[in-house]
Records
---
Amino acid sequence: MTPFKMPRRTRTMAAALTTLCALSPAVVAPRIAAAAPPLPAPDQKADSQMKAVLLELARLNPTPLYKLTPAQVRKRPGPPDAVKAVLVKQGKPTTPEPVAKVENRTVPGPAGAIPVRVYTPSGTGPFPVLVYFHGGGWVIGSVQAYDSSCRALANAASCVVVSVEYRLAPEHKFPASHEDSYAATQYVMKNTAQFGGDPKRVAVGGESAGGNLAASVCLMARNRGGRMPIHQLDVYPIAGYNLNTPSYRANATAIPLSRPFMAWFFRYALRSPRDGRSPMISLDRANLRGLPPATVITAQIDPLQSEGKVFADRLKAVGIPVRYRNYDGVAHEFFGMAAVVDKAKDANAFAADGLKAAFSK
């Protein structure tokens, strides 16, 4: 019988495998590690609590999100998942902050029903009301992703929070999110009793794109003769269309928000660059007269810090009362991380103080 002769290609592969198996783990591991993409490094300005969250976020998303499609990014873990990972490592519960009641409803909108989530605090109504808009560059994000902020504000400000699930781009480009947000706010203001609220005490607020929406809703109310909220809470709002500000340059590679990621948001959210010059996007250039008092919060490690400060200064310049605070050592999205970041607790309290002052007048 003729002996079996292994093909040359197979012999070569077998020899390579034998050599690899003979190597010690100390040799193999570095080679495998070298082949893997490096994790994004948290900014050195981040304090220890913020850095812990950013490390987990980098581990969950080693590939920059701006290299993915909107559909892909929506499926990726986000800052709330990083917070949960930190809590697990600390041996703490991951259950959300309790409120008296949480209810999912809808309100009428320009393109059909708009989902909203209503958070009711403990106590006896009618309560003041905060209409809230989540972040995500008008492309990603959801009421669930910003659940922690709404719970914290409902409790700290003793108000009903109506969190709006507005339409997202690129399926619905600008100004769809703005029109939904305005319609939802006007409906809540005209039907406040349905939410256990007081019609004379309705404010708006939001984070990032949501901070932009809160301010834009006030601009739209002024320009269209609608009902005006009594206060606006703008947490690191998108307030401009200039990617070359001092904070964009200083935080070009920051996580979770970088300059390329903001360019990604604009590319998918706007119909054309011309939309970027709209007063509803470039708040830093808009006519701000007649808007309600504001609380504006920014973060040091955030491309949006400069334009948020400019927006606050321009409000002051036209005589609008503004409470402004910047938080060092923390990054964009920190506001919803009170479970693990102390400065987020402080920011929540600062925001609630501004709301309570407005509600008490």
---
Amino acid sequence: MLSFKQFILTIEPNYEMEWFHAYVADQCERLLQGNIKNLMVFMPPQHGKSEIVSRQFPAWALGINPDLKIVGCSYAADLAKQFSRSIQRTIDSKAYQDIFPDTYLKGMHPKEQNTGYIRHDDHFDIVGHRGFYKAVGVGGSLTGTPVDIAIIDDPVKDALQAHSPTYRKRVWEWYNSVLATRLHNRSCQLLIMTRWHDDDLAGRLIKAEPEEWTVVTIPALCEDNNDKGLSVRKIGDPLWPARHALDKLLKQKRRAPREFNALYQQHPTVEGGNVVKREWFRRCSEAEFRAKRFKEPVHFYLDTAYGKKKQGQDNDPSGILAACLINADIYLVHAMKVWKEMPDLLRFLPEYMKAHFADKQSKLNVEPKANGRSVVQMLKDATKLNVKETPSPRDAKEVRFRAASPIIECSRVVMVEGDWNDDFLDEVCGFPSRAHDEYVDILTYAINDLKDTYNDLPDIIDNLF
């Protein structure tokens, strides 16, 4: 049997197959072979997922088995029809007929008799077989249509639809009342999309039946070294630099961090937040912070990822937060993440602290993780910083964060405005669904430390805890 990857390269000799294209093609092949029943593929926009799954895969599958009954769905019937026409052009091609001469459409053979087979934009039959392909938009009818393979390619058009509770409900009801009713015991499903919203169709399916789906998530910027063994990428590397360079992606991230994390990294934030909500955080300018602050020290909280993993490369960044207690309010002065080995981290920390209002009273708080005590000792030996170990946590991270969240809910946490705000809020308000949670750790440390720093605070602090 001609593999799916070989098929694509035969039909499209100039096709630029990157490692992630090959990986997605392999997963589609596993689905056809019966090794996967339901497959989700999350990839950034304009990275070729529709070409593989919605255009090439149905043609290859019908060549392997001309009796397959395939339905291709998208947010609009017109787009679904475009996919259908593309599949028909592929089947019509000489290259395809050389590979699969038994799979052909009405009108392709001069001696073909009128046998009632259909060939339209939204439906075509495989002549001499029971197989067909039907294109339908979300909301369209599938009455009387049995489905062996259901392909859903982006059931939402744009942010307006994605953030509409009414439209999300409409998609969910259509899936359950129309598409799902056409499936049988051996039916397979293939859902590809970019994640706009945590409550999208993929999110609801994962919550309802997590064991039923194989999920492939490929972010635009690498989050785990080597993509967990799939690539040679390092953290922060772009997925397809020849088409979408790092500078381009970073500009997109700066323009709209929240949308970037959803569409490009596949980490949609729950609307309003999970444990905490975005609107709970107050804001102030740096000038306002300077005016309010008298001699209150700014303290620093470090969640270090120092440690040699995977031949010297660490999957997780170190997170650092500068925070200050003024009266009963905790001011978040600045936060950032860095990927640094210890020598570079030792040089970086004094510079960072000096740039963010550090003085002789400032403390650098470090969590004593597995190697935390050695990190603290190295910092004490190599720098003049006031280094303090934070108490070793006894409870789970989510438990600790929920315990610290009331002070945020009471609007006692104020963010000093800066370009770091959106990334910080996306991670903190997206917890626990985000890939990384360094900001959650250091925010929890800061709240727990600063609320206990002084014994002569106003009574409101005592009432909060």
---
Amino acid sequence: MSASAIAAIAADPPDLTDAEVLDVLDSAYGLRGDLTPLVSERDQNFRLDAAEGQRYVVKIANLSEPEEITDFQIRALIHLEQSGCPVPVPRVVRTASGRVSESAYAGDACYLLRVVTYLPGQPLEAVTPDTELAYDLGRSLADLDSALQSFSHPGESQVLLWDMQRASEVRGIIGHVPEPGMRDRLHECLDAFEKRVLPVFPSLRSQVIHNDLNPGNVLVSDTKPMGVAGVIDFGDMLRAPLVIDLAIAASYMRRGDHALDVIKELVRGFESVIALEQSERALFYDLVRTRLATTVSILHWRADARSADDPYLKKALAERSAERFFDRVTALGRRTFDRHIFDD
């Protein structure tokens, strides 16, 4: 396994005090208010309730993240704003002098701090999506990908274990999965990925993608019918085959008894904006399974690597449903899965 791939998700998040963060916000942004910690895999995030009544998200990048990657994430949000993307995403807040980020010091370490707007809405993880909401989510993802199609940046090729193009490297942590049968099934999934998918990746259309449309990164409205109110957290974004973005979203549509119907509508919503090519459809089953295999493996690795009271680990334990859905999709097989998702 690439040391840098695992390092990107293994490093401890920054640990600045509220006072240190508030000092930077005041001096650089002219912002004052109250901070509330937000759970993050590898960064340190806060919600700022400003004195003027506005809300912001403050993000402090991990020291293991190159500045080029942080700038990539910032510039992507600026690109989406300037391109008129119909999907609400956070907007970059500039410092008083016009910079898009600011240095924050803690001891001898220097971190990059940035501020973005706070989007209203409830996380999708708080509800079980129905087919109507899934269709809107698929359409919103396609709108987001359409806007990102023209975006490029030197930091778009970050090294990250969540990059499905690197899925073979997940083998290095499968040993943390306690159940031998599940370990065998995960290895079988990666065998199929390496045989069927990996050789085809270079021929697929690729672009910058969000790469992490999980229910915690999607905000939905409180209105009826419920719709997508925004997409957040662009920290896993990179350049990859387009169909991966849809497969990742599909892998999280696993709650309830009608998960396959929900995934079908997710795909239909996406294809209402961007039609999948036949080569992309042919890989969809393998990509959904591979994302689930990655989720299962990283969850168990993280459980061994972090303390039981780690906030991100506690939140990630909800991913245990990935094991059950991985087995369900595997039992269906490619032909039955594809027939359910793609047959009209």
---
Amino acid sequence: MEVKKLRLNNFRNFSEYEIKPGEGVNVIYGDNARGKTNIIEAIWLFTGAKSFRTNKDSELIKNGESYARTELEYNLKGRINKSSIIFGEKKSVEINGVKSVGGGDLVGRFTCAVFTPMHMDIVKGCPGDRRRFLDTSICQINSGYLKILKEYMRVLAQRNALLKDIQYESALLEQLDVWDMRLCDYATKIREERQKYIDKISKESEKIYEGISGGREKLEIIYRPGLDFSEDAETQIAKARANDIKYGTTTVGPHRDDIEINLKGISARSYGSQGQQRSCALSLKLAESAMLKEETGSSPVILLDDVMSELDRGRREYILKRLGENQVFVTCCDRPEDYADISERAELKSFYLGEK
């Protein structure tokens, strides 16, 4: 997987911008507030996922403009693909000249892994942040998972609405069985997909953390499902029904899943230092890229936003060596020569974002 060209029109702070990156390490540098992260964000949007910075498409449009357009050309296994996304009153997508009904059609076509300071929430944040990381990662290798996830959330919302109404109208209790059956079906599939993915990514992230830390600490990733594997989903949801009615919400299910991240058997979230937490999150994101390659047969594009400058030379060198087969985008305020010295890549291109 290799980005050949990215073009932006009225996107964030850019009226017009075009970049033709190299196949190796690409360093996007300049002072703060010049739009370095905006370029990373624009590339990421072509995975079909939401922006990692906002849930509002309107925020992607340059102030004073009515629309924004992003275009991406990329090489996948020798074939050049072209996609475009227009953000306006409605979002429209075009893939290789064919208009698409929605952004979901982008999922699984262009794959990349992104790491920004915001992804520290994988370790430091709430369970929802870790579930979001899991789901976004799985969607890139299993486009059908997105549909299952959306259906689960739709059924969950309907069931929760019914639970609230039952407290005032007991006759509605009969309808609960129908929603329980649908919920169990989707919940079981989500639990299985998440467990399968965590089994793989935990082994890979543990090896990566060992390299980043120089073997001084052991990383451990444990799946804590909202539905235990010791019983089937139907039994657990049936047991929880009384509590669900009492509290007016579904108390068990994948929407309660979490990932436990430990160092030396101790919670990295509660007791890890800032550096340890950063290394844990980075290990998981690099493991994600390894999973993408394993499942798709193509090395994903790697987006590292304002991350490398906070790592010492040894850790930078380890990461860039590990990403030797990937096209990499690095944003920083540093001189690009600093990366040329340690990357050992035949090609390093730099792009300066200066005064507009």
